[in-house]
Every structure is written in C-alpha cells, then in structure tokens.
C-alpha cells in the first residue's frame, strides 16, 4: 500500500482550513500533516512536517502566498505548491507560477476537482487550466522583448524546442504525440530532457521557460 499524500494547509481563515482538513482527511490516500495561518508559518511547517503538497493561499499575513511559495520551493526536498485563491487575476497567476507553484485553483473549485488537483500535483505534474494558459500567453505577448530570455534555450535541440512550444501552448502529452507524430515514450523522453536542460521541477516550470523564451508566439 502506497504512502498517503501529505498535505499542508496554508490559509489565514481558520474556518476554511477546518473545512479543507475534513475534506482531505476523509479522502483515502491523503492526510493533513499541518495547518498554517500565516505565510511565515507555511514556510516553517513545510520544512518541519515534510508535506508532499502545500495548499497555499495568496493573501496571508507576515508573508504573502507568493513570497511563501518561493521560499517553500527553495527548500531541500521541496514540496509541490498548489495555489488556492479567491483572486482570479493575471498578476497572481504569473507570479505564483514564476515563484515555483505547480498549479493554480480558485477557492470555488468543486471538492472533487480540488482533490484531483492535489493528486496531479503530488505526482509531479502541473495543473494549468486552459484559461490560465491563455492569460499567460496574453501577458507574455505584451512583455517587451528585452525582458525575455531566449538564450535560456541554448543546448535545446530543434525537436525539443518543438515539444516545448506545444507544452507552452497548453497541449497535453497525447496532443503533442498527435501533432508531432511521435510515440508516447519519445514525447516523455523529450520532456525529461527539457526538464534537465532547463532545470525545471515540473511541467509548470517548462511552461514558464517557454513563455520567457518567446515560444508562445511561434
């Protein structure tokens, strides 16, 4: 039997934390290991309780969720961070992912989808809804070219660049297979090499690398 997914709840609303705890603890294969009411507590507890996933609010006292996310993802054996917020704003989406978050959900997300998101992020995948991807593309289309980092792709092969371009546009592995006429194993190999070359922890980090290299506009 596999170990349960260990979850840290970080939100300044005690009532919401209590509701989330009941939901997570009632789900087979998951357990809440700690609750944090401030961003600073979230960073501390992430280091002491070894969660697999941190459910992180954006607006919290002491440290905001984005600053806390950056600190949590910099820890040794860092957990994945799933940002959960009421604020569906472009600036938060980009800043949270740039800080190292693996996903972004609104607090009105149905419970079943939230639990699925925890599983997805715990497995090392990224959770990027198409609406989020579209907004990120729009954001980078407005960004001056001087702020981008095309040299980040030095050492990436042409085929890996093709795969990264499609990841940046939000395509799934199955869609990439069809688009490039590649096998599932070949796509996974290219993605693994991209993660190594770009020092990306997960798919969300690959998306950010693609945006910053201008691939969203190809």
TrEMBL record:
SUPFAM superfamilies, A to Z: C-terminal effector domain of the bipartite response regulators, CheY-like
Tree of life domain: Bacteria
Annotated ranges, domain Response regulatory: 6-122
HTH luxR-type domain ranges (all copies): 149-214
PROSITE patterns: HTH_LUXR_2, RESPONSE_REGULATORY
Keyword Transcription regulation: yes
4-aspartylphosphate: modified positions: 57
Entry keyword set: DNA-binding, Phosphoprotein, Transcription, Transcription regulation
GO molecular function, one term: DNA binding
GO biological process, one term: phosphorelay signal transduction system
TM annotation in the entry: none
InterPro entries in alphabetical order: CheY-like_superfamily (IPR011006), NreC/VraR/RcsB-like_REC (IPR058245), Sig_transdc_resp-reg_C-effctor (IPR016032), Sig_transdc_resp-reg_receiver (IPR001789), Tscrpt_reg_LuxR_C (IPR000792), WalR-like (IPR039420)
Database matches in PANTHER family: TRANSCRIPTIONAL REGULATORY PROTEIN NARL-RELATED, TWO-COMPONENT RESPONSE REGULATOR
Designated name of the protein: Two component transcriptional regulator, LuxR family
Species name: Micromonospora citrea
């Amino acid at each position: 039997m596999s170990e349960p997914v260990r979850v840290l709840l970080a939100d300044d609303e005690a009532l919401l934390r209590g509701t989330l705890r009941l939901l997570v603890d009632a789900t087979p294969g998951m357990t809440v290991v700690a609750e944090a009411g401030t961003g600073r507590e979230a960073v501390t507890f992430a280091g002491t309780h070894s969660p697999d996933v941190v459910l992180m609010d954006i607006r919290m006292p002491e440290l905001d969720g984005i600053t806390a996310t950056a600190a949590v993802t910099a820890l040794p054996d860092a957990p994945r961070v799933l940002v959960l917020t009421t604020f569906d704003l472009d600036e938060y989406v980009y800043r949270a992912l740039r800080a190292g978050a693996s996903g972004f959900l609104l607090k009105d997300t149905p419970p079943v989808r939230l639990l699925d998101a925890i599983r997805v992020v715990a497995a090392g995948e990224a959770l990027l809804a198409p609406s989020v991807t579209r907004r990120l593309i729009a954001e980078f289309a407005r960004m001056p070219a001087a702020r981008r980092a095309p040299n980040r792709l030095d050492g990436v092969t042409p085929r890996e660049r093709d795969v990264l371009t499609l990841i940046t546009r939000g395509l799934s592995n199955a869609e990439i297979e069809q688009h490039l006429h590649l096998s599932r194993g070949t796509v996974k190999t290219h993605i693994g090499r991209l993660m190594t070359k770009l020092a990306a922890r997960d798919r969300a980090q690959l998306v950010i690398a693609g945006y910053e290299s201008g691939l969203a506009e190809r």
